[in-house]
Write a structure and sequence with these properties.
By secondary structure, this protein is of the alpha/beta class. The longest helix has 11 residues. α5 runs parallel beside α6. Helices cover 21% and strands 29% of the residues. It has a single domain, classed as Ribonuclease Z/Hydroxyacylglutathione hydrolase-like (Metallo-beta-lactamase, Chain A). It has a 7-stranded mixed sheet with strand order 6-5-4-3-2-1-14, covered by helices on one side. The chain binds nickel (II) ion (NI) and manganese (II) ion. The site of manganese (II) ion has 7 residues, from α1.
Length: 227
């Protein structure tokens, strides 16, 4: 069974019977996370979209504890190798696709910024198109709305879009993004973690239902969607 679990904020787990892939882990110091980094069940790959602390915070500790491979843009991959001493790291870049034991990962553009917690340059921010068990999942990650989303994620099975506003697109632009991409299902992310990015996800879902052809799925923190 393939499923997608929301860890809160931009953090997700995609898994099937053999693999568990973690995206943008932010558990320690996250007021909405239900588990700490040391309570996370074993993962084998960790995808990092960009360098901000709320996406990389727990990645090195988890990678070392689980013998997991970090996948990130080249600059961030180098940072994990050289400054965090993570053993297994794969660097890639935007537009590239990587074949992994569970399926494939394509790195997509994102309109955002990317500086690592120690001030190091994190390269360009990214999103991911993950294909697992023939299901295509687009993680837009931290980004503004941009029309090229359609080129990368047209008609995906599942789109995960930020709705928090302020640091990423908000509800209005995520509805527009959903119209562009036309996913079967769409899930909100990157909201509710702190007061400045509080959003009414039910209001968002009502708008998706009335203005697009996608099915909105609002998960609670820790809840899963079977794919
Ligand atoms: Ni960010
Ligand atoms: Mn963020």
């Amino acid at each position: 069974m393939t499923k997608l679990t929301w860890l809160s904020h931009g953090g997700w787990i995609v898994e099937n019977d053999e693999h568990r892939i973690l995206i943008d882990p932010f558990l320690t110091d996250n007021p909405t996370a239900l588990i700490s980094a040391d309570q996370l069940q074993n993962v084998d790959h960790i995808l990092i979209s960009h360098g901000h602390f709320d996406h990389v915070a727990d990645a090195a500790v988890i990678a070392k504890g689980h013998d997991a491979t970090i996948v990130a843009i080249y600059e961030i991959a180098e940072w994990f190798t050289n400054t965090q001493h993570v053993q297994s790291v794969i660097g890639m870049n935007i537009g590239g696709q990587l074949e992994l034991p569970f399926g494939s990962v394509k790195m997509t553009p994102a309109l955002h910024s990317s500086q690592l917690p120690d001030g190091a340059y994190g390269g360009e921010p990214a999103g991911f198109l993950v294909t697992i068990d023939k299901t295509r999942i687009y993680f837009a990650c931290d980004t503004a709305l941009f029309s090229d989303m359609k080129l990368y994620a047209d008609n995906v099975d599942v789109a995960v879009l930020p709705i928090g506003d302020l640091f990423t697109m908000g509800i209005e632009d995520s509805v527009t993004a959903t119209k562009l991409i036309n996913p079967k299902k769409v899930l909100p992310a990157h909201y509710g973690t702190w007061p400045p990015i509080a959003q009414d996800a039910n209001h968002w879902a009502d708008r998706i239902r009335s203005e697009t052809d996608a099915e909105p799925i609002v998960l609670q923190v820790g809840e899963s969607l079977e794919l």
